[in-house]
C-alpha cells in the first residue's frame, strides 16, 4: 500500500489553516466564555477588570442564586417551555402538510398556492393591521397570541417542499396503488425520508420561539404569561434588576456591581437550555444542510 507524503507547501498551508480556524473559533466562542466567567466573578472585581476575561475573578454564585430565586424567571421559563413545545409541534405539523400539498405535481392549484406562499415573504401588512387582526380574533393577552401568528414560516415550507419534490414519485404511486391515503403516504413514506430536513426546520422553529419577545411585548399585558425573553429584556435593556437584588445587599455602588453579574447570569440561564438541543439534532442538521450538495 503506497503512502503519499505531502509537500512542504501543503504542510505549511495545513498549519496556517489550523491556526486560522482556531483563531476564528476563539473569536466566536469568546463572547460566550466572557459572559460565563463574568457571571461567576466577584461583582467588585469584575467592575475593576478590563481586557480579556478567561477565568472567574473570584468564584461567586450569588448572581445565580438571586436569579433562580426570582419568581419572574421561573414563570418565564414555564411559559417559554410551553410556547416552544406546543408552538413547535403545531408549526411542524402545519409546515409538513402545507409542503406536501404544494409539492404534489397533480394538485391543480399547486402553482397558485406556491405564488401566494412566496408573496407572503415580500408583502407584510404591518404592525397595526396585525395587532387589529389579533384583537378582532379575541387573542389579545392569550397564550395563543404567541403561537398562532407565527405558526407557519413560508421559508420553511419552501425548504421542505423543495426536498419533497426530489423524492421519486414512484414511491407515492406504489403506495396509492396499495390503497394508502394521502395522510398515510405523508406520515409513513414522505416523513421518514424528510427526517434530516425536518429536524433542521424543527430547530429553526424551536430557536425562533425560544428567542421571541416582540410579540409578547405587543400582545400580552398579563405578566403571568410573559416568556423568559421578555423578562430578560427588562433586565438587560430596561435595567430592572432591583427585584433580583437581595434587600440586605448594600446600597449604591455595590448594588450597581451586583446588577452587572445578575445580567450575565440571566443570559447564561436563558441560553443554556436551547444550546442543549443542538447535540441531539447535530447529525440531522449536518445532513439537512448538505442536501443537494452532492449529486450522484
From TrEMBL:
Residues 77-266 form the ABC transmembrane type-1 domain. Keywords: Cell membrane, Membrane, Transmembrane, Transmembrane helix, Transport. GO terms for biological process: transmembrane transport. It comes from the Bacteria. It is a multi-pass membrane protein. InterPro entries: MetI-like, MetI-like_sf. One of its GO terms (cellular component) is plasma membrane. Its main location: membrane. Pfam families: BPD_transp_1. It is found in: Cell membrane. The chain crosses the membrane at residues 12-37, 80-100, 112-132, 144-164, 185-207, 262-281. Signal peptide: none annotated. Coiled coil: none annotated. Belongs to the binding-protein-dependent transport system permease family. This is Carbohydrate ABC transporter permease. The lineage of its organism: Bacteria, Bacillati, Bacillota, Clostridia, Eubacteriales.
Amino acid at each position: 500500500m503506497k503512502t503519499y507524503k505531502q509537500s512542504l507547501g501543503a504542510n505549511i498551508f495545513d498549519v496556517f489553516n489550523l491556526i486560522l480556524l482556531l483563531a476564528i473559533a476563539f473569536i466566536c466562542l469568546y463572547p460566550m466564555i466572557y459572559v460565563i466567567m463574568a457571571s461567576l466573578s466577584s461583582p467588585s472585581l469584575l467592575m475593576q477588570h478590563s481586557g480579556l476575561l478567561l477565568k472567574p475573578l473570584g468564584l461567586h454564585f450569588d448572581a445565580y442564586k438571586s436569579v433562580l430565586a426570582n419568581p419572574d424567571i421561573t414563570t418565564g421559563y414555564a411559559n417559554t417551555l410551553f410556547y416552544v413545545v406546543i408552538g413547535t409541534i403545531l408549526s411542524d405539523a402545519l409546515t409538513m402538510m402545507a409542503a406536501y400539498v404544494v409539492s404534489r405535481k397533480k394538485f391543480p392549484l399547486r402553482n397558485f398556492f406556491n405564488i401566494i406562499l412566496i408573496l407572503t415573504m415580500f408583502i407584510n401588512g404591518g404592525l397595526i393591521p396585525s395587532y387589529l387582526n389579533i384583537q378582532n380574533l379575541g387573542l389579545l393577552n392569550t397564550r395563543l397570541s404567541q403561537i398562532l401568528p407565527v405558526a407557519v414560516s413560508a421559508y420553511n415550507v419552501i425548504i421542505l417542499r423543495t426536498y419533497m419534490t426530489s423524492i421519486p414519485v414512484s414511491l407515492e404511486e406504489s403506495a396509492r396503488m396499495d390503497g394508502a391515503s394521502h395522510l398515510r403516504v405523508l406520515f409513513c413514506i414522505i416523513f421518514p425520508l424528510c427526517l434530516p430536513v425536518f429536524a433542521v426546520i424543527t430547530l429553526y422553529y424551536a430557536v425562533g420561539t425560544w428567542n421571541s419577545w416582540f410579540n409578547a411585548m405587543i400582545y400580552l399585558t398579563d405578566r403571568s404569561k410573559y416568556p423568559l425573553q421578555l423578562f430578560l429584556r427588562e433586565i438587560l435593556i430596561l435595567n430592572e434588576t432591583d427585584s433580583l437584588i437581595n434587600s440586605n445587599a448594600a446600597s449604591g455602588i455595590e448594588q450597581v456591581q451586583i446588577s452587572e453579574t445578575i445580567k450575565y447570569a440571566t443570559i447564561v440561564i436563558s441560553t443554556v437550555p436551547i444550546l442543549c438541543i443542538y447535540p441531539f439534532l447535530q447529525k440531522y442538521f449536518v445532513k439537512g444542510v448538505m442536501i443537494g450538495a452532492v449529486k450522484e
